[in-house]
Amino acid sequence: MRWRRPRAGAAGSAGAAGAARAAAGRGAAAVRRLGRAPDLPLVAAAALCAAGLLQAVAEIDERNRADIPLTLALALGSTAPLAFARTHLLPAATAVTAAVLLTPLSDRLPCVAALPALAALLYLTGLRGSPRTTLLFAAPFVAYAVGPAASAAGGKPLGVALLAGAAAALAAGAARRAGGEAAARSAADWEYAHTVLEHAARGERARIARELHDVVAHHISTLSVQAETARLTTPGLPPLGAERLLAIGDTARQALTEMRRLLGVLRDDASSGPPTRRPQPGLDQLLTLVDEARDTAGGGVRLVVRGRIAPLEPGLELTAYRIVQEALTNARRHAPGAPVDVELHYAEGALRVTVRDIGPVTGPMSPGPAPGGGHGLLGMRERVAMAGGTLRTGHGPAGGFVVAAELPLRAAAAA
C-alpha cells in the first residue's frame, strides 16, 4: 500500500474546527466565571438602568413632556431591581414584571433595556423558585396577552411577544432546576446503593471468615493433635518417625497461625470469593463430629441429648453445630486428652447447647496445650447473636472450661 499525504485543504479544515472548539470552550468558561462574579447583578442593573433612562430622555418631546416623571419611574422600575437578584429575587422579579406590564398601559412601549432585565429575573425565578411560583409569574403575562393588550401600546403582538419571552425564560430556569434535582437524586441513589453494597460485602466477608475458621481450623487442629498424640503414645517409634511427626505438628500449628492472620484481614478489608454450594451441616452430623473428636483427641467425648427432639430451622441447626465444633476444637487445643461432655437440651421455646471439659490432663505422655488464640469465641458470639440467643463462656465451677449457648426457637425461625 502506498502512503498518501493528506490534502492541505482537509488538514486546514480539521485545524480550523479544532481551533473553533477550543475558542468555544474558552468562551463558555469565561461566561461561567462572569456568571459567578459577585458584583454582576449590580453592574448589569447600572448599565441597563442607564440605557433605559437615556432611551426615555431621547423619546421626550413637546407632547409628552408632562409625563417625564412617570416615564423615568417606569424605566427605573423595569431595570434597577435587577441589582437585588441575588438577595431579594422574588420582590425584584415582581417589580420588574409590574413595571414592564404597566408601561404599555400608560400608552408607551417598554424600554429596550427592560427586556434583558425581565428575562434574567424570570430565568432565575424558574431556576430557584418552586413550580407554583413559576406558574404565578407566568399568569400576569397570560392575562395581559388575552386581556387589555389590544387597547394598550403595541397591541396584541406586544402582549404575545411578552408572553412568549416570559414563558421561555421561566421554562429554561425550571428545566435547569429539574435537571439539577434529577442529578442530585441520582447521586444520592448511587451513594445509597454503594453503601448498601459495602455493608453487604462486609457481612459476606464476615460470614466467609466464620465458615473458614469453623471448617479449616477444625481440621488443622485435628491434624496437629493427631501428630502430637502419635509421637508421644506410639511405642517403639523410630527417632526419624518421631522427628517427622514433630515436623508435621509444627507445620500444622504454623498453618493455623497464618490462617488466623488471614482471617483477621478477611474480617476487615479483603474481598471475598463466591460462596460454596455444598449443603450446610446440621445436628444430624453431630454424632459423626463427636465420634471424630473422640478418635482424634485421645479422651472421652460424650453426647447427651435431653428433652423432646423436634425438627429445627436449618439456620439454627447450623449455628448449634458450629458452636459444638468450635468448642471441641478449643478443648483439643487447650485441654488435650480431657474428657468432654456435649449436651443438647430441647427446652420449651429454646435449644440449649453446652460443651464442658475438666481442664488439661497432666502427665508425662500427654501433649501440652497449643499456643495462641484465634477467632473461635468471636465467631460463636456472632452466630449466637444472629440467632437472637445468648452465649456464656468461662471456667466451670469444678474447673475446666464451659461453653453454654441458648438459642430461642421462635427467634431462629423468624430470622
The helicity comes to 55-70%
* Gyration radius, rounded: 43 Å
Shape verdict:
rod-shaped
Spatial order of strands in the largest sheet? 1-2-3-5-4
Global mean pLDDT: 77
Largest sheet: 5 strands, mixed
Please tally the β strands and state the result.
5
Helix count, per DSSP? 12
The chain-level structural class is alpha+beta
**Cα separation of the termini:** 72 Å
SSE succession = HHHHHHHHHEHEEHEEH
Residue share in β-strands: 5-15%
List segments where confidence is low: pLDDT < 50 over at least 5 consecutive residues. Answer: 270-277, 363-374, 411-415
Number of domains: 2
Oligomeric assembly:
single chain
Explain what the structure shows.
It is a single chain. The chain has 415 residues and is of the alpha+beta class. The protein has 2 domains: 38-193; 280-415, 2-Layer Sandwich (Heat Shock Protein 90), CATH 3.30.565.10. Helix content is 64%, strand content 9%. It has helices spanning 8-35, 40-58, 68-77, 89-105, 114-128, 131-146, 155-233, 239-268, 286-297, 314-334, 376-386, 409-414; strands at 301-307, 340-347, 350-357, 390-395, 401-408. Strands 1-2-3-5-4 form a 5-stranded mixed beta sheet. Strand 4 (390-395) and strand 5 form a beta hairpin. Helix 7 packs antiparallel against helix 8 (239-268). The protein is rod-shaped.
